[in-house]
Write a structure and sequence with these properties.
This protein is α+β, with helices and mostly antiparallel strands and about 250 residues long. It has an eight-stranded mixed sheet with strand order 4-3-5-6-7-8-9-10, sandwiched between helices. Helix 1 packs antiparallel against helix 2. It is globular, with a radius of gyration of 17 Å. The termini are far apart.
């Protein structure tokens, strides 16, 4: 029941994005001039926080905006990115998504990502598979040589840019082609749906990848840190996701 209720809330938030007036978006920066937030990021997060906590009043809440970062170590928690791909949103690039994950005692239980521009709602529940608009999805079974590499290279982390492009060159040399969407949550959905074979980014926060991580895993793929080891749901880390026939060890050579 809670899965269906969360989907309804996310669709409501999608309408906020679709009806946004970007001429009055109140664009602000977070630390760096290219790390953006708008009044719509805040508005969507407020709707999510209010309505998700109505479903589970005892739950903790972790959201990208407004410094709402409760601990998820015990009990139920929601991890939310109200608009993943804010720069895309500001530019009307139509490549932004809403991401909601739910954890129990620090373990991912639900993952949902909604792209209102395509009206695609990706859902996953631990142990029950992954879906797009209710239809089962699976990661690609193609090797990287016949596949696409997706990557993120946030320009507000200048210390990571050289390493990002060094790894991208390695992946480019082994891939059919490369893509950059500007939304890690969306990239992870594309891995889960078998639309691409490899994704990496060297620093993501839990709200960027939590829902997508569960989607990829439930679709039969793998999600780890680039350097190896499990991803973190409590602090920033690198993220590497792949389909079932991709050997990612070359990125650690």
């Amino acid at each position: 029941m809670i899965m269906e209720q969360i989907q309804q809330i996310m669709r409501e938030c999608g309408r906020i994005m679709l009806e946004a007036d970007r001429s009055h978006a109140d664009i602000e920066t977070k630390g760096r001039s290219n790390n953006l937030v708008t009044r719509y990021d805040k508005a969507v997060q407020q709707v999510l926080q209010t309505k998700l906590l109505e479903l589970a009043p005892e739950a903790h809440f972790v959201g990208e905006e407004e410094d709402v970062h409760d601990s998820i170590a015990s009990g139920k928690a929601f991890i939310v990115d109200p608009i993943d791909g804010t720069a895309n949103f500001v530019k009307d690039y139509k490549g932004s998504v809403i991401s909601v994950a739910m954890t129990q005692d620090g373990q991912l239980e639900l993952g949902l990502v909604y792209n209102p521009y395509l009206d695609e709602l990706f859902t996953a529940q631990r142990g029950k598979g992954a879906f797009c608009n209710g239809k089962p999805i699976h990661v690609s079974n193609q090797p990287l040589e016949a596949g696409l590499t997706l990557y993120g290279s946030a320009s507000y982390y200048p210390e990571l840019i050289d390493d990002s492009f060094r790894l991208l060159r390695k992946a480019f040399d082994r891939s059919m082609d490369i893509r950059r969407s500007g939304s890690a949550a969306w990239d992870l959905c594309c891995i889960a749906a078998g639309r691409a074979e490899l994704f990496f980014e060297l620093r993501l926060y839990p709200w960027d990848h939590a829902a997508g991580t569960l989607l990829v895993r439930e679709a039969g793929g793998t999600v780890t840190r680039v350097e190896g080891g499990d991803v973190s749901l409590s602090s920033p880390c690198s993220v590497l996701a792949a389909g079932s026939c991709v050997d990612t060890s070359f990125l650690r050579e």
